[in-house]
Amino acid sequence: MIIKGFCHPPRSADKLAASVMLLSEGRLQLSTAQGHQVLLLETVNINEPLGRLPIRLSFPDGSQFIPDDSQLLEGVLKARERTWLHRVERNLPAIASSLVLMGLLFALFFTHGIPWLTSGIVKALPQQVPVLVGQHVMQTLDDNVLTPSELSVAQQALIKQRFHTMVAQLPPMPVKPQLHFRRWHARPNALALSDGSIVVFDALVALAKTPEQLDSILLHELGHLHYQHVMKSIVRSSLLSASVAVLTGESTGLVDTYSGAGVFFVTQGYSRKAELEADEFAVKSMFDLYGTTEPMQQMLQLFITPNGIANELPEWMNTHPALETRIERLGE
Ligand SMILES: [Zn+2]
């Protein structure tokens, strides 16, 4: 429908005969004797009529259109608004399902895309990367928290010998396993680094009552090496932080805080899975090497003190399903 009226050109009191017409896709055509101009309706400012004043359209270039019949233009604009709303309503199921689909895609990206990318990247990394990262972490730990082991040379040699005999019977490892002895106060703990280093703390050696019990923990750490969990967790947290930054766009402090928490919980989920994998590796190896998982169960029991409170739990137990569930699982 063509709506007739007049137009004030920019910064001018001239009154030119003009007309406007609403086109499809939210466009509007302004016609004067000088020519046509097509604009997006959203760039046009609609000045609502005040009292007896007519409705006015202000264009980005400063020109203004005033219709002969204010009510006619109002009616046309209102009808357009209604059809737009109507269109949204009619498409609501489609809009809702695209939102659900988008949510699903995000979820899939985090549950499958990130692990897939992580494995790919870790496989493609040159061998020097896990070696350098491992050496750096070891150096940092030595500089800050660890002290030299107080175990006798003979005892260290004996454990190392058992360790290498075990490794020789296991499937080949992506990195060369090496055993190190350190002290970290009285913490019975062991940890695996990306370069193949497994660090055993004196208190763990003291806690184990038999060599097989200590072996079960070493096998758990070897499980981490087998699956390259350390390098994967480093690559994964970088990927997660990068994805969150991309998805949320500009990072405000608030987004940082929440995405930080999100990354933390997602990472916790992944590391619980890593602990289960390392456990399964240890269980299978215990069966292969000793025909039983009993020493592993006994070792886990040793972490529970008589008053029911567990010893300060090592890294791999904090992120773990409850100790009792773990022992039960082994019994099955
Ligand atoms: Zn672990």
UniProtKB/TrEMBL annotation:
Bound cofactor: record note: Binds 1 zinc ion per subunit.
GO term, biological process aspect, one: proteolysis
Keyword Lipid biosynthesis (UniProt): no
GO molecular function: peptidase activity
Residue stretches making up the DUF7092 domain: 5-79
InterPro entries: DUF7092 (IPR055518), Mito/Outer_Membr_Metalloprot (IPR051156), Peptidase_M48 (IPR001915)
Keywords: Hydrolase, Membrane, Metal-binding, Metalloprotease, Protease, Transmembrane, Transmembrane helix, Zinc
Record has Oxidoreductase as a keyword: no
Positions of the Peptidase M48 domain: 158-330
Family designation: Belongs to the peptidase M48 family.
Record protein name field: Zn-dependent protease with chaperone function
